[in-house]
Structures are given as C-alpha cells and as structure tokens.
Amino acid sequence: MKIIQPLLFLIAPAAIAQDIYLPEISVEDSVLIPNQTEQVVEQSPHFAVDGGDFLRNTTGVSGTRMGGHGIDPIIRGQNQNRLNIILDDAYTFSACPNRMDPASGYANMESYDNITVIKGVQSVIDGHGGSGGTVKFERQAPQFDNKNTRFKASLGYQGNSNAQSIGLDAATGSNQGYIRGMVNYTDADNYEDGDGREVRSGFTTQSAYLGAGYTPDQQTKLEFSAEAIREDDMLFAGAGMDSPKSDNNIFRLSLQQQALKANLYYSDIDHIMDNFSLRQRTAPMKMLTEATSKTYGGRLSYDLDVGQALMTVGLDYQRNERDATRYAGKPTASILKSQQSYMWADTSIQQWGLFGEYVLPIADMDMLTIGLRYDRITANADKANQAAQGGVSPNNLFQKYYGYVADEQDENNIGGLIRYEKNFESSSFFVGLSRTVRTADVTERFMASNNNAGNRRWIGNPEIKPEKHHQLDIGFTLQQSRYQLATSVFYNRVSDFILRDKALGQAGILQQDKASIYRNVDARLYGVELDVQFKLTDALTQTLGIAYTHADNTTDDRPLARIAPLEMTLGLDYQQAQWAVGGLLRLAANQTRFDAQSGLDAGETAGFAVLDLHARYQVAKTVQVQIGLDNVFDKTYAYHVNRANADPFNPEAVRVNEAGRSAWLKLNAQF
Known about the structure:
This protein has four helices and 38 strands.
C-alpha cells in the first residue's frame, strides 16, 4: 500500500470535472454474429493480473495455472499455438520451453482498450493456425472530444497476495494525430489457498508503452508504438524452477489508407529460469536455462468491392527464432558453465501466407462468407548437431527416439472457411465449416531436454506432421426485451493431432523408457456453449453461462489431456445510476476423464462451487471505485487443467490450488 495511498489523494480531487473513460471489453463468441451481437462490459468484476487470468472468466475459456502470473488460456479444449493470441496486431511467442510466459501473460489489462475473444474459426485473415480460436488485445486511437489532453489512472489492491497495481495512461493530440504513453506496475507476494497453505505465486511486472499516430483524415491512420515489458522474480508452485527475469520488447508500425491495411511488428524476449536463486534448491544439481524468442512479421491486405460483395485479399509473413540452453553445475558452483541440454537448438519457423475472403450479402439480412488460405512453412534447428553434456546432441536424441535427425522441413498447408449467417428480426442463426492446418511448434519439433534417466527426457519430433482440423459450428442467438440467449455447438475432427505422450514403443517410437515424446494421432473434439442474460427487473439482471468440451484420442481410444469438465457460472447483478452490487457463482463438475498415460494430467479432479461478490460505486463523474470478495467461503480448489513440470528431476504434472478468500479494491479515474 506504500505506493497506492499517496496517489489516492492526488487523483481524487483532480478528477471531478469530466466524464470518466472506462475501457470496453468485448467478447465475440462463435455463437454471436460478428458486428451485430456483442457482449460488452465496462469493467471486469475481478482483479485480473494478466490477459490469461481475465480470459478465464469468459464462458468456454479455461486456463492452466503454474504460479500467480502467466495463466495459459484454453478455448474449446485447445491451447498454445492452437490459439492465435494477438497483442495489438503483434504476435509474440513464449521464450520459456515450459511456457512460464505465454503471450497472454504479457498483456497488462490496464493497457488495452478492447479484448475480443473469437471461439473457433470465423475468418482466414487473422493468421495461420488458430483452430481453437483467436484472442485480440487491442488499443484504439484516443478520442479527445475538443480537448487536446486525456489522463487516466488506475489503482488496485488484493489482500490475499498483498498485490498492488498502478497504471497511468496519458494522451495528447487532435484530429490530426496523437501521442500516447502508458506505464503499469504490479507487485504480488505468494497467496494462500483455502486451507491457509502458502502457494508459490509472487511476481513483479512493469511495462511502459509509447505510441504515436498521424490521422490527417478519417480514411488515413499511420501509427508507431514501442513497448517494454519486464517480469521479475516470478515464482511457480507448479514447476521445478522459477524465473528471475523475462523481458519483452515489442515494436509495431501500421498504416491504414482507405481499403489498404498494412502492419509490421517485432518482439524480442529474453527469459531466464533456475532452481536456486529464488527458492531453496531441492534437486541434486543446480540448473539454469537461458532462452530467447524473437518474432517478426507483418500483414498486407486490401478490400475490394465486387458488386454487392466485399473481397479481402492479402499476404502475411511471420518468423519466430528461439534458442534455449540449460546449464548444470554442482551445488557449490557460483557460475554454471556446463551445457546440460540444447533444449531449443537455434530453431526457426518461417511462414508465408496468402489469403482471400469473400463476404456476400444475401437478401436483406443474410450473409455468406467464403475464405481460402495457403501457408508455406519452413522449419530449421541450426545447432542440432552441437553436443551438450556427455557429448549428446539434439540429433543424437532425435535419432534415438525416432530414427532420423533434424533436417529442414517444408510444408504447404491449405485451409478454408464457408460460413452462412441467417438473420431474423430478433434472432440469428449460423452454420460454419472450416479446415485449419496448424504447423508444429518449435517445442513439438525440436525440444531436446536430456537426462540420464529416460523417463526424465523431453524430445521433440523433427518430422511431425501438421494438424488438420475440420470443424463444424452451429449457433443460434435470440434477443428479446427481457432476455438474451446465445448458444452454439461445435464438432472438430482432427487428422494428425500432435500428441505429447510417453515413449512406450508405439508405432514410429523406438524407445520404451517413458520419455516425453511427440507423435501424430487422430482426435475428436466436440462441445456446447450457452450464455443467457435475463432482466428480472429494470435493475436486477441474472446471467447463466455453461460450457462443456469432450475430447478423445481416437487412435488410442483414450481421452485427450487438459480438457476442462462441465463448467457453469450463475450471476446476479443489481444496478442503479451510481452504484451496483452483484455476485457470481462459479461451478465445475468432477472431471473423471483424463489421460493417464501422457503425464500431462495430474489425475481426476473434484468439482467445486465458489462464490464471488463485487460492488461498484461512481464517486464522481470521473472517479469509479470497485470492491470485491472472491472465494467468499474460503474454498480449497483447483481447476482440472494443469501444466506438466519442466523440472528434469521431477517431470510429472502438478496441479496448483487457486487462491483462498481474497478481498480486492480497484480505483479508476480520468481527468
């Protein structure tokens, strides 16, 4: 509270004169017709520390927890690069082999104006992959309304973890252009679960953003931005290591000139994790991993009017370069010099994409969308022959487990979409068919984590085939004066699903030592989502959200890992002109379906019911206060989905308990 208390006195008196600006968070489900029906809330009734934490409050979205920061989202049973996570038109990929730093973890919630969640496939424009969905964290050009400056401030505090946050957002300009700067800071200690046990979860994050835009007319916008994100002293209960440092620098340049859109981006991450600097060492050896991830690319598109239809054509480019070396040493060593494993041996994946999308209005209210996409993929591991400790190179490991080494891999992938939307006066219906091809991540291709014990190795498959997702989406929405309903069902048949498994001498696997390996199988995922909002009175609103996903490895006749059980939310909110109160009951059923062989699931999971309370008060036109009490009854619980441990001495999956009772406060102001 040392940071927060003095600022309360600075902000409140100065923030009395003007209308407050609150960022909008938009959730665009596959059940909702784009640009027609959209769920919008002014502020999230939660204390969300990053993008993944926030997304878990959306129906149909789950996420894996390893610590207090860096929750990795899952949509429709799909995670990692089965989702396109886009940070203000920039792609960024984790520099941690065990994803301590997923892309959504670099999204500070106070530095974005809109967040859009698209479940499933609704377009071919947003990039290759993305079979599970797309999440866009977006910033908008500031609007000044005859005033040439705007300043916002946000403060937050959460009691369980002693988390403190502050955000400042300043902009100046006119209708000809603008300059915008933001800084955000969050610091948190370990939290306690419902049983009062301390969970390693502390972290510190800092970010600074500077953007400038030139907007000479309504048809032209040229923008440049630079962003620095610093994550320090990240503690992880679900891993054998912590992260003393993870630094990300992002640069963006974009141009929109009438029908022409172009953007360039560059992301550069330096990541360190070890098992000794932030915790008492329990392993027999000191371990330290230094890793980098550099991503650069861009997109060029053009909108063409073809009669009554709109056609968008374009191309995009992306290159991701990752390198990770794990060092080992005796407990007494002050500097670790011995390269224990080249986990990512100077790897790169390059993608060129061509796309076209045709949107045709039918009759007065209906729409047909047809999209086609081609991607050329090239993958390399330039240091695959370089020997680490014991003279073992990544290629030695690939040869041992698969019978081949890492050569340059090329792919030609074709995807497409057909979607029909039927709109009535107060309802809508859609049906969509899509094919999405997802190339393997560098971890799935080139991971080379060695160990003397075979069951503690983690080996990528250089010749793994890309996944082919064939999906059917059907949805319906209904809007009446008192209630709104949106529901969808999906079915996804996957050829060559990339499965992380244990080496047991399966077809194409040469060892039976239970090392973590990758192989292709066929899979099937299907599920249902439902959102209902019902106005009991003009002031009292009830909400209901239900999501269920069923997923099978049909080749081996067993469940896929990391699939959430039936989940439901039930909310009740009472709102007046200046204040509002509400509650949210979060429920999850028992999950008895899990993958017992892969090592990715920690077993069955008990169901839970957790109650959260929140309130909001408009102190003045420009000042709003939010308070909340999460997990009111101090329940001890954990979500079923989890991440496997990257500790080479204990690679088994770990499930991390959520926080116990947590009171929080947020203040937002503009002047």
